[in-house]
Amino acid sequence: MASLTERPLIALVGGDTLLAKEIREVLGETKPAPRVQLISASGDGTAKLSAEGDEPIVMAPLTAESLAGTTVAFLAGSPASSRRALKVNPKGGPRLIDLAGGLEEQPEARLRAPFADPAPQHSDSPIQVIAHPAAIALAMLLGRLSKVATIRRSVVHVFEPASERGQRGLDELQQQTVGVLSFQKLKMDVFDTQLAFNMLARYGEEALEPLESIEQRVEKHLASLLTAWPGIPMPSLRVIQAPVFHGHSISAWVEFEENPGAESLTRALVQAGLDVRTDEPPSNVGMAGQSGLSVGAIAVDHNQPRASWFWLASDNLRLAAENAVAVAKESL
Predict the structure, then answer these.
(1) Could you give all domains of the chain from N- to C-terminal order, each with its CATH number?
(2) Rg (the chain; Cα; Å)
(3) What is the pTM of this model?
(4) Of 189, 206, 264, 313, which sits 20 to 30 A from 258 (CA to CA)?
């Protein structure tokens, strides 16, 4: 077993967030597991005491001192905390792996998604931004389909879970679900409208972030990832906020120059390493805590024989965390 001094030290900014928990679980599966320095995403410069179940969590303040000596720093808090981390990161400090999306406009930032790359990639940039998990899932599917048959066009609906809005999104959906059933006033701080028992094509005007901007981010990230797969046209894409707590579900319609058929498509995706369900289609509930992407319900479109339907499911936080850790391993 490696000694403590042989194990790399990494920083985890936003150590008590949902994303941070997933990163810690994925890191715990690596051998040897690195040492983790939990850092608060707060900008007040003080240490924080949080809790995970019955266990207390002590987080160091976000300062140059707390980042010094670490090899990589996962930024799993908010976009604002990612920007603060960049500001205080000391010269020669850790490589920043941003999962919160606060640094993607930095000139030296590189968008990353190792699970969607056609071949192993490496970037020496000091800022690595992890793509939106829905964009990663779609690039994984479309990239592998393009090796089977030429894609003419595609139409995609992404059903966004509340967990993409963090713990506040989960708490608000839970309160709304109870509130609707008990005729209570609904909490609307995150979505600014009723999400419980509802499907949303748009949030309320005072939502924390417009759904349109989330859709634009998915499109932007997917367009960037697909540049590694020449010849794939950009899908027509719509993001819908679903009343589910966790996990992405995606419906994809893909038209080919010549449709190889459901059986050939299934066989090709299996050979490409994807989890393909031929009996019962995957679900966001069934994918909770599971790795990668699952595909099912593959069927030729009855009205357009050149096209086929695909149903995708993934654990959004897990998929983002796994790609982030894969990037980190380039430096560990």
Answers:
(1) 4-103 (3.40.50.720), 135-316 (3.30.360.10)
(2) 20
(3) 0.93
(4) 313
